[in-house]
Request: fold
Amino acid sequence: MIRFAISKLADRKSLTEQEAAGALNCIMSGEATDSQIGSFITALRIKGETIEEITGCAKVMRQKAEAINPSVSYYIDTCGTGGDGTNTFNISTAAAFIASAAGVPIAKHGNRSVSSKCGSADVLENLGININLTPDQVKSCIENVGIGFLFAPVFHKSMKYAANVRKELGIRTIFNILGPLTNPANAKGQVLGVFAEHLTEIVAKVLMNLGVERALVVHGMDGMDEITTTTKTKITEIKCGNIETYELDPQDYGFKPASKKDLVGGSAEENSRIIISVLQGEKGAKREIVLLNAAASLYVGKVANSISEGIKIAEEIIDSGMALKKLEELKEYSNSFQ
Reply:
């Protein structure tokens, strides 16, 4: 199946959903060689991944994942594709604690860094959170703390077959897109950042194919896979079975345009320090970008009716100390399993 798929892609022809699923199934079952995996994901990247191809691959990854089903009526994921090359601090991770403290249950899916200096797993580990939990323990975190971290290698064991090739290639591939689309808790709400502008509509349509009910798929016009404060952000929204694309301007919400250098992070230690300072109420550009992204999570999480209302709630949650308290709660609870 994978040889057929490679041959078709080499002729710059798109695969059907079933063909893409068949090829990824070969990879995730350990049947494909490293050369075949490398050829397949590179050929897809060169041609450009379609909605059908991404949907087919995402369905296989979801089937192969170790799934959990928290007994919470509605919860969301805040996760980006990464690969945006901007080296910002972990904005969506900081935003997740604020949203959770405001009453939005979070099933945050993430991994160690692939292309940046510090992935969500790296920074959470540095903050003292135990990321190496079993699926049942993560489920318990979501149910009892209101936030849990789904560490990709624990839930997507079949990904090991592609890990080496991805590392050796060192380029963005379909796997960057698939990560946020394959939440093992099957979250029905998502704030999902993508590394390229053209992907917002594509990824939104894939999310609908996968049964997601509410989502904001975002791409900062400065290249960021977050809602940015340096310029406008392109957003494709899923709501009530409809898809709508629009631009969000941070100046409409009273934020002065930030400079990219004010949003840069570094090592896991540095990014942990930044997250703590933001959650402690430190003012400035880092707080503002976290507020805007937390507001998006509150909106998708049905706690806020608009981004404006979400910003006000996020400010209250930080300034009351509730966001920092939520981080401490997860730290304590995740380490109680040892």
The CA atoms of residues 130 and 336 lie 9 Å apart.
